[in-house]
User: Which sequence fits this backbone?
């Protein structure tokens, strides 16, 4: 008999018919009541065993973590908390689980312990919920762009260019690393002998390649893995993460801000509508966690209130210059409560500043735009008529409560001469990016795009506090387990 998903059984309006369910035992109590979960929902279905007519050997094997198959009658539940239950007539153990050794016992585990067991943590309520939310968000991303007529582009994971100019990249090579790699006359490694004939790295962004496709297909998006070799052991950084990067021909900065706001609201609303039970569970989990924090550190909003806050408010658009004035005059800056004091125009804003603007000053999501050119990437369009020393670029960042920056984007520099000058000033090799410059030589036009770190979005929607808990297998300094 074909088995049914637990979510379908729990939502069934038809009872007193035979069903089969397969899943993993969460708990087994009184030798009678199995809480069975198959991952389709956060809720378990209760399976009632006729223990008097079930062999002791079988009962002993019904342990937490064991995979089982049950067949029986779907009936209205006599117990509180669930509408239906399965009155078991046949039970088969599909895979045993040693109760003494199975790490995911039905008790509260620390997040650190769960990270050490990332291959099993998804069997807990919290991580099952997080990963279902992540999956739904990913689907919503594709649905949004497909509905809007964007084309999905797969940009290279191995690349010879550094889109961000950050230099913190993972090198890809087939040359030996024991010192015997071929050398040039000056002693440097001869990368012409390497697999690709040049030095290559794992990508930090698909943006530059994405731009070339936008200049032919009009509007495209990428959604794939990106890599940073930053030695950042923080709750907001990963060495491997997923990025969503739309690029749109003929869009200016205002269009770009409109697109980003509309996109974020769409995917959050879709997920709130689809993942109600998981989000309610994660909200309750967060409330419980916050009880241990001092009152001042607790969030003013519940998780669902925070999501509604983003959906119900227009994002406030504020220039970088205006934001600096607000921060300079703010109480935490004057009283030196900020870790990084804002003294002058040109400062690179930190998370504490971004969160102050969103959570304390404007009390809504904020889009900052027109940043100083010297703190932004080479490909961002230089604003006209800016005073020397105070040049700004058509950049924008979207700031969220609890997270800080969630999106970074810009109108791209479409003028060939200006782009070349900027590249020279930063020491970026024109020959290395000849193909990128071709898009400015042949049919250049105003175009814009942005990047959204997918895990930052999942972090916000789930209310989790550490980015390592919203990706299946986190890659961080000194950690490539699993």
Assistant:
């Amino acid at each position: 008999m074909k088995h049914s998903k637990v979510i379908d059984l729990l939502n069934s309006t038809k009872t007193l018919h035979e069903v089969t369910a397969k899943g993993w035992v969460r708990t087994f109590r009184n030798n009678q009541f199995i809480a069975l979960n198959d991952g389709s929902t956060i809720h378990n279905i209760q399976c009632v065993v006729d223990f008097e007519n079930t062999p002791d050997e079988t009962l002993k094997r019904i342990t937490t973590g064991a995979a089982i198959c049950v067949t029986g009658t779907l009936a209205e539940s006599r117990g509180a908390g669930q509408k239906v239950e399965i009155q078991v007539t046949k039970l088969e153990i599909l895979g045993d689980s040693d109760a003494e050794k199975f790490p995911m016992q039905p008790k509260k585990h620390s997040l650190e312990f769960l990270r050490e067991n990332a291959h099993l943590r998804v069997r807990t309520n919290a991580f099952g919920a997080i990963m279902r939310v992540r999956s739904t968000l990913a689907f919503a991303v594709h649905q949004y762009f497909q509905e809007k007529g964007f084309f999905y582009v797969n940009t290279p994971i191995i690349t010879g260019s550094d889109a961000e100019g950050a230099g913190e990249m993972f090198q890809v090579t087939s040359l030996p690393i024991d010192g015997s790699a071929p050398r040039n006359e000056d002693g440097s490694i001869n990368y012409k002998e390497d697999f690709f004939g040049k030095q290559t790295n794992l990508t930090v962004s698909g943006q530059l390649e994405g731009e070339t496709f936008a200049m032919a297909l009009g509007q495209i998006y990428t959604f794939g893995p990106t890599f940073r070799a930053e030695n950042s052991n923080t709750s907001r950084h990963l060495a491997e993460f997923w990025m969503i990067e739309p690029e749109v021909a003929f869009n200016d900065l205002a269009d770009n801000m409109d697109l980003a706001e509309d996109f974020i609201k769409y995917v959050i609303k879709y997920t709130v509508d689809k993942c109600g039970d998981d989000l309610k569970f994660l909200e309750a989990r967060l409330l419980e966690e916050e009880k241990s924090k001092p009152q001042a550190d607790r969030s003013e909003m519940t998780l669902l209130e925070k999501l509604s806050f983003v959906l119900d408010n227009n994002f406030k658009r504020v220039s970088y210059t205006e934001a600096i004035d607000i921060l300079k005059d703010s109480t935490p800056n004057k009283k030196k409560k900020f870790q990084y004091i804002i003294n002058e125009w040109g400062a690179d804003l930190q998370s504490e500043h971004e969160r102050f603007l969103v959570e304390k000053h404007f009390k809504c999501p904020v889009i900052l735009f027109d940043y100083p050119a010297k703190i932004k990437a080479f490909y961002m369009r230089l604003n006209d008529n800016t005073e020397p020393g105070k040049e700004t670029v058509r950049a924008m960042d979207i700031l969220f409560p609890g997270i800080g920056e969630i999106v970074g984007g810009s109108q791209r520099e479409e003028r060939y001469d200006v782009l070349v000058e900027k590249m020279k000033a930063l020491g970026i090799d024109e020959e290395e990016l000849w193909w990128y410059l071709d898009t400015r030589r042949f049919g250049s036009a105003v175009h814009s795009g942005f990047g959204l770190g997918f895990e930052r979005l999942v972090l916000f929607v789930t209310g989790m506090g550490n980015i390592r808990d919203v990706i299946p297998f986190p890659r961080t300094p000194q950690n490539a387990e699993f």
Observations:
- Residues 6-95 form a domain with the OB fold (Dihydrolipoamide Acetyltransferase, E2P) fold (CATH 2.40.50.140).
- The chain has a mean pLDDT of 94.
